[in-house]
Amino acid sequence: MSERESTGFLMKQRAFLKLYLITMVEMKKGYALQMLDILQHDFKNLGYRPNHAEIYRSLDDLVEDGILYRVKKLQPNMNSKHKEVVYYHFVSDGGYEAAMRYKANVKTDLDRCIKILRKAVADNYS
Amino acid sequence: MSERESTGFLMKQRAFLKLYLITMVEMKKGYALQMLDILQHDFKNLGYRPNHAEIYRSLDDLVEDGILYRVKKLQPNMNSKHKEVVYYHFVSDGGYEAAMRYKANVKTDLDRCIKILRKAVADNYS
DNA sequence: TCATGAACATCTTGTTCATGG
DNA sequence: CCATGAACAAGATGTTCATGA
């Protein structure tokens, strides 16, 4: 949550995934592995395939940031067996607002990274 | 030198610096710390400040890749003392061609990364 | 088997130290 | 001090293992 100055090179995968997970929680896309499936599908043609551990770590970050909380639910599957899955919601006391601030910060970094990459194209290919 | 499939998230800083260093050797920008100064200056407003260790590691990579070789030269400074500095040149047997192939590969990755970031902007801000 | 994690390993990068002008 | 490295530490991420339903 600390608004640290972006002092490094390109943004970290973790921040990128937290951004997507916030948006997917807004859109109620499901539990962790379902969101992972969607991301793997959507980025397949861009050669990026996130893994499950990083998804869980990102969600855990968002919980520790005070943005999301977990709700365990029983989910019936096709074999009439029940499995417990974890859904995420914005914490009622400022979670959504914190999420929007986080997204705004990441937007700044996305724009910064795009500038760096476009500069590299301009500087090195002529 | 292996043309490995870009399987990860965004590109590594190392590849980014190797790209710039190749271009700067083409343009004869000087020795390592001079090139570092230029990069630090040019990316200052984008919040990116590479450090000297990563520059040396990138140059070492390019030497190990068979693209560059080192030439030590004595450089007089203002105090009439002499210091040995290291300049880099393309190896005569295919070094330049290998450098151009490397640059072409990085270009592909730069474009891929820009697509990923622009997709994130489109997907998460509306 | 799927879903959720933790634990472990590795790879990348940043920081500090060493050497020689 | 500068220039070049090496060595070490820290961080980020990938891989594997554990647990329960």
CATH topology of chain A: Arc Repressor Mutant, subunit A
Separation of termini of chain A? 41 Å
State the secondary-structure class of chain A: alpha+beta
Give the amount of beta strand of chain A, in percent.
5-15%
What does this structure look like?
The structure is a homodimer of 126-residue chains. With 126 residues, chain A is α+β, with helices and mostly antiparallel strands. The first copy, chain A, has a single domain (13-125), classed as Orthogonal Bundle (Arc Repressor Mutant, subunit A), CATH 1.10.10.10. Chain A has 4 helices and 2 strands. Chain A has a two-stranded antiparallel sheet. In chain A, helix 1 (13-26) packs across helix 3 (52-64) and helix 1 (13-26) crosses helix 4. The first copy, chain A, is globular, with a radius of gyration of 17 Å. The N and C termini of chain A lie far apart (41 Å). Chain A binds chain B through residues 5-11, 13, 16, 19-20, 22-23, 42-43, 46-50, 103, 106-107, 110-121, 123-125, and chain B through 5-11, 13, 16, 19-20, 22-23, 42-43, 46-50, 103, 106-107, 110-121, 123-125. The structure holds a DNA duplex (21 and 21 nucleotides).
